[in-house]
From TrEMBL:
<dbReference type="GO" id="GO:0070573">
    <property type="term" value="F:metallodipeptidase activity"/>
</dbReference>
<feature type="binding site">
    <location>
        <position position="360"/>
    </location>
    <ligand>
        <name>substrate</name>
    </ligand>
</feature>
<comment type="similarity">
    <text>Belongs to the peptidase M20A family.</text>
</comment>
<feature type="binding site">
    <location>
        <position position="475"/>
    </location>
    <ligand>
        <name>Mn(2+) 1</name>
    </ligand>
</feature>
<protein>
    <recommendedName>
        <fullName>Peptidase M20 dimerisation domain-containing protein</fullName>
    </recommendedName>
</protein>
<feature type="active site" description="Proton acceptor">
    <location>
        <position position="196"/>
    </location>
</feature>
<feature type="active site">
    <location>
        <position position="130"/>
    </location>
</feature>
<feature type="site" description="Important for catalytic activity">
    <location>
        <position position="258"/>
    </location>
</feature>
<feature type="domain" description="Peptidase M20 dimerisation">
    <location>
        <begin position="238"/>
        <end position="394"/>
    </location>
</feature>
<feature type="binding site" description="in other chain">
    <location>
        <position position="475"/>
    </location>
    <ligand>
        <name>substrate</name>
    </ligand>
</feature>
<feature type="binding site">
    <location>
        <position position="225"/>
    </location>
    <ligand>
        <name>Mn(2+) 2</name>
    </ligand>
</feature>
<keyword id="KW-0378">Hydrolase</keyword>
<keyword id="KW-0464">Manganese</keyword>
<feature type="binding site">
    <location>
        <position position="258"/>
    </location>
    <ligand>
        <name>substrate</name>
    </ligand>
</feature>
<feature type="binding site">
    <location>
        <position position="197"/>
    </location>
    <ligand>
        <name>Mn(2+) 1</name>
    </ligand>
</feature>
<feature type="binding site" description="in other chain">
    <location>
        <position position="225"/>
    </location>
    <ligand>
        <name>substrate</name>
    </ligand>
</feature>
<feature type="binding site">
    <location>
        <position position="162"/>
    </location>
    <ligand>
        <name>Mn(2+) 1</name>
    </ligand>
</feature>
Length: 502
């Protein structure tokens, strides 16, 4: 009779042999998928071009029909591949109308499934098909809604990296499996929204409704809606900052006035507003609202050590900024400021004169917009109260006769997950297979508030698997995605699905 030890050894040896067969099998299947991805490159670029051509800007009410066109485009590209997508309507958008005063519907959520070979896990893929606004005048070198292939391999156009590129990349991945004749070893569930850039209105309720229906049985979530930190090193991401967005409205005289007639005779809303805004943050980024720093989790030596391992230089940051306007001298300080400390940004002023030329107007009512990126352990309700109190106090100290209103426009919570689970393991292996290096584990400064909702509602691990680079210029003029990242990104997605199913 075999002793327990030797039988275990035998069992392990058997398992090893079995695994070896599976992996060699896996690699030949994966190789077929990869080579199909290479073959289909022109088709994949054309698909992205068609997607970019639809100006699906969620923050521009007059373009709402473009979001419906975009949803339709995704549906029509996916359905021939066997993906059943349903267009889920969410009703009218709160408090927003077109320029003609008509109410507008929220963009639909595309929800659907693709049955895999049945052996593996059930993975929910989230992405968004809406994009940020883009106008030629903002500094684009070409029409933002016409994809341009640059000789150096850059694909330039609004949404290429955020988030049309990744959404289209998932469709491409499915096509490659299908045409290579390889079964996808996991079941897929899709949740593709059209309101992410405008606060994901309606999505949280949708997830709560669907957790026991369409999203039932999901084992893990994969979100591809972020970027590498630098330009060479692939990453997997396990944390995001939250964002709380505020407006300060100051109203004074009953209508806009001529500054020659009234300058010096009335309290001016724009003067009040600049004073109040200037008391929010210092030029080097220190938030001046008391009480926020005290809520930020303390840096442990263990966490501090993690930043030393990230492939990122201060020059990477300078390259992404386009010059050397960095606040910090070291990459570690810069990364910590981006990932684990709050930041306050002032975005703009509604109602103020902002055209070229020199109009001598006194605006009667202005709204300053600012946001705070939030981090563990900031309590969002407490934060709102601190912001309101501070702004009211700053305004009161001006002794102005104007009226002040401070409001929270939207808030999404920060998220820090645990990267030690099968979901990250599959993505780590996929990254190594495609890029030949181990990915860095990163947090990010941007926000995808729905990541936390998925984790809390479905109680399953969320993984962020980016395909673009840190210098892609998401939200900026001349947003790009490098063709290598697009194609290798599709391969990484394919390998991820493959390993997640094994
Ligand atoms: N893709 C970004 C989120 C992101 C940015 C993740 C940078 C990681 C790094 C997303 O499209 C986005 O811009 N989200 C908004 C959310 C907001 C409107 C609630 C953001 O971060 O401003
Ligand atoms: Zn995005």
């Amino acid at each position: 009779m075999l002793s327990l030890r030797s039988s275990t050894r035998l069992f392990c040896a058997k398992r090893l042999a079995y695994q070896r067969t599976v992996y060699s099998q896996a690699s030949s299947d994966l190789k077929r998928v990869f080579s199909k991805i290479d073959d289909l490159k022109p088709r994949f670029i054309k698909r992205l071009k068609d997607a970019v051509a639809i100006p699906s800007v969620s923050s521009e009410p007059d373009r709402r029909n473009e979001l419906f066109r975009m949803a339709q485009f995704i549906k029509s590209e996916s359905e021939p591949l066997g993906v059943t997508l349903q267009q889920k309507e969410l009703g009218l958008q709160d408090g927003v109308t077109t320029s003609k005063g008509e109410p507008i519907p929220l963009p639909p959520i595309l929800q659907g499934t693709l049955k895999g070979s049945g052996s593996g896990k059930r993975i929910l893929i989230y992405g968004h098909y809406d994009v940020q606004p883009a106008n030629l005048e903002d500094g684009w070198s070409s029409d933002p809604f016409t994809l341009v292939e640059k000789p150096d391999g850059r694909l330039v156009g609004r949404g290429v990296t955020d988030d049309k590129g990744p959404v289209i990349a998932w469709i491409n991945t499915i096509q490659a499996f299908k045409e290579a004749g390889v079964e996808i070893p996991v079941d897929l569930v899709f949740c593709i929204e059209g309101m992410e850039e405008s606060g994901s209105e309606g999505l949280e309720d949708f997830i709560k409704q669907e957790k026991s229906k369409g999203f039932k049985g999901v084992d893990g979530i994969c979100i591809s809606d972020n970027y590498w930190v630098g330009i060479k090193q692939p990453v997997l991401t396990y944390g995001l900052r939250g964002v709380s967005y505020y407006s300060i409205t100051i109203s004074g005289p009953s209508e806009d006035l001529h500054s020659g007639l009234f300058g010096g005779t009335t309290y001016e809303p724009m003067i009040d507003l600049t004073h109040v805004l200037s008391r929010l943050v210092t030029p080097n980024g220190k938030i001046l609202i008391p009480g926020i720093d005290e809520m930020v989790a303390l840096l442990t030596p263990e966490e501090s050590g993690l930043y030393d391992k990230i492939t990122f230089t201060i020059n990477d940051l300078k390259d992404a900024l386009g010059n050397d306007t960095t606040i910090h001298e070291t990459p570690k300080e810069a990364l910590m400021s981006r990932w684990r400390y709050p930041a306050l940004s002032i975005h703009g002023v509604e109602g103020a004169f902002s055209s070229p030329g020199a109009k001598t107007v006194i605006p009667a009512k202005v709204s300053g917009k600012f946001s705070i990126r939030t981090v563990p352990d900031i309590d969002l309700k407490k934060l709102d109260q601190l912001v309101f109190d501070h702004v009211e106090k700053s305004f009161a100290s001006l002794n102005s006769k104007n009226k002040l209103k401070v409001e929270l426009i939207h808030a999404g919570k920060w998220w820090v997950g645990d990267p030690n689970n099968w979901n990250f393991e599959a993505a780590r292996k996929a990254t190594e297979t495609v890029w030949g290096v181990e990915p860095d584990m990163t947090r990010e400064g941007g926000s995808i508030p729905i990541a936390l909702t998925f984790e809390e509602e479905l109680k399953k691990p969320v993984l962020l698997l980016p395909i673009g680079r840190g210098d892609d210029g998401a939200h900026s003029a001349s947003e790009k995605l490098d063709t290598v990242n697009y194609i290798q990104g599709i391969k990484t997605m394919a390998a991820y699905l493959y390993y997640a199913g094994k």
